[in-house]
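Example record used in the benchmark description.
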Amino acid sequence: MHDKRLDTADIRILAHLLKNAKASNHELAEVAFLSPSQCHRRVKRLESLQIIRGYTVQLDPQALGQEITIFVNVSLDAHGSNPALRFSESIRGVPEVIECFSLTGETDYLIKARLPSLKAMSEFLMHRLMSVPGVGSIKTSVVVEEIECLPSLPADLLEQARREAQ
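Model output (structure tokens):
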């Protein structure tokens, strides 16, 4: 089994990749104070441990015509494995859905979706989401301003790196 402990160099590599997924191995090596070959081995190890699951591009939703971001709390009309499974299968691959989480508490699911207009939002909610089998009710919130939406390392790892750097 692979060792999943992370040291300061690993944390520096991860923090830099979160800011710039296109960083070169040479750039990562400088940030982590490693040789390029050591850094390359570290990145490959982090990938094999699935700590790094992939590399993504951040897109500007407004530049792509996605003017509205909404959060939708979804409550199912019945509970158990079948309604939840049906809902999960139905919501996968819906292009407007950016994220979907199964929750505990008052609602069963939280969906984050992006849409080009109020008309598209209405169409999505009324004809797409409410027609999914098992959906009992929805409560929608429209995002007025996106304040902070950045991937980050867990606070304990950042604190560990700070302590080790002293």
